[in-house]
Amino acid sequence: MIEFEYWWLLALPLFFMLGWMAARVDMNQLLSESSALPAAYFKGLNFLIKEQHDKAIEAFIEAVKSNTESLELHFALGSLFRRRGEVDRAIHLHQNLLERPQLSELQKTAIMVELAQDFLKAGLFDRAESLFRKLCGAPSYQQAALRALLDIYIREREWERAIETAKGLELLSGVPFHKEIAEFHCELATTHPQQIEQHLASALQANPFCIRANIMLGDNALANGQHEEAIAAWKRIESQKPQYLGLIATRLLQSCQALNRGDEGLTLLKSWVQKHNLPAVLNVVYEATLAQEGAAAAAELARNELAKQPSLNILDRLLQALESGQNVTQQDVPLMKKTVHYFLGNSRNYCCDQCGFKARQYYWQCPGCNGWETFPPEPKEQPLR
């Protein structure tokens, strides 16, 4: 049996008293800090909650005047200036703060962070870059600074620096940037055509699933009249992401035809349609079937596909085949085609998976959110209402 220590009874009131005193000290400190803040600060917060930004700025200016030593108040005011687009005022505010004597290193770093954001917002990328590069030396800000630098290099299209920075971010954060790095190499290939194969090889080394690199390798071979090499490069896309095959189907068929292997190319495209259900490839197959085998074969192809899955696009192809075969009256077909084309033209768009940006053409980098490879390779048909 465990013996009960009676002296614990005497200690309990002492522990209770110490806890009560600690709570009183914390409460007094909190009240002291709150009372030290000017009333205008709380007015500014109230205006912010109500989204009355002009009045919030006036209140924070008043608060800063009555408490000039508070960096937090200055930062809040500078942030408001940036949000309102008054970047010049934010820059002036933070530059004045940096000139204060007896600032600690931590305070200087915090002010530099705010000033760098001001320069970035103002589009003064060289000044922002200079500050963010200095901030890379501060461990607590290093990752954020590298991300800001990456954004700057992308905007300025400095792809070699973007690659270097992205690799540094990978090591520091553990987040993979292989897709972005591959895209940067592809951008270098477009600006340095004399080294295109080298840059595209680097892109595939960074990301073996980089579709754009194989498309560009095929396009480069085609430009040099090397149809076999072009076809080989485009075929590799099937083992990467077959849903992107529609982007190169027309060119692949043309290269096959240039080698007098048009039937072989058409057979390959038909196999892709059957295996992967690719509407964009089906369009190319239809046009080739109509040209090589006639309207009856093209109509039969469209009927079969339409039976599998209703689609305005396929319906349009069927009508085209019927018109070519003169199986319906000439008055009806143009009217039906015009109607279908109207709805088809307004309902088929590439749509960014990340931000929802819609485009009539395919983009590797979304114009809306600047994300890379966020567009599905197939345009979507929007439901008609």
Report on the architecture of this protein.
- This protein has a domain at 260-348.
- Strands 2-1-3 form a three-stranded antiparallel β-sheet.
- β1 (348-351) and β2 (358-359) form a beta hairpin.
- The protein contains 20 helices and three strands.
- The chain is mainly α and 385 residues long.
- Mean pLDDT is 79; it is low at 1-16, 20-36, 40-50 and 63-68.
- The relative contact order is 0.04.
Features of the shown structure:
single chain; 385 residues; mainly alpha; three-stranded antiparallel sheet; 3 strands; elongated; disordered N terminus
Question: What's this, in brief?
Answer:
By secondary structure, the chain is mainly α.
Widest sheet: strand ordering = 2-1-3
What gap, in angstroms, lies between the N and C termini? 82 Å
Shape: elongated
The pLDDT mean sits at 79
The amount of helix comes to over 70%
Estimated radius of gyration? 32 Å
Largest sheet: 3 strands, antiparallel
Number of beta-strand segments: 3
Number of helices: 20
Structural class: mainly alpha
